[in-house]
Amino acid sequence: xxxxxxxxxxxxxxxxxxxxxxxxxxxxxxxxxxxxxxxxxxxxxxxxxxxxxxxxxxxxxxxxxxxxxxxxxxxxxxxxxxxxxxxxxxxxxxxxxxxxxxxxxxxxxxxxxxxxxxxxxxxxxxxxxxxxxxxxxxxxxxxxxxxxxxxxxxxxxxxxxxxxxxxxxxxxxxxxxxxxxxxxxxxxxxxxxxxxxxxxxxxxxxxxxxxxxxxxxxxxxxxxxxx
Length: 227
What we know:
Distance between the termini: 15 Å
Shape: globular
Order of helices and strands: HHEHEHEHHHE
Number of helices: 7
Oligomer: single chain
Helix content: 40-55%
Number of strands: 4
């Protein structure tokens, strides 16, 4: 949590994983893949509205001190991680209200509940997502719609793996040391979270036990926020 690592040049940040989406669609017969660049808000507004369960899970990261933070990158991160979820919810809620049932699941972060230095855009977006989720929960309750946030610590995703490699280069240490000495410092359970664990908790929020879980922020942060 100390010195600021150098960020990846924005041009090197990988684009959306269209190939991965296609591969998933091939494995799951009932899945219809609809690629979309969530930074393109007109494209977001054109996505299908007949959705019963909305999971907002897109993430972008950039690290820099506030005085050096590129305003365009700040805007992009908030567009992808806060404005796109708002527009998606706005688009699908009428369908959910008409059905008298719907689930909005926002994959937030421990950074939706706590801050870290050098992550102004990410922390701002996640804190905003927490507020948006609660507003949807209050408005949707009368229509059978719930809205909640999941708050994991560091999950073993491509985004985090890029952060690990980047910080290893910046600090001149190996990647295991980055995980142990930087990422796992604030948590009591000293391990990265696996994506399947987040998916399993998300499944609870649209399963039979979910009707009265709304407006919540469910921490799976290894004890980070217990401090």
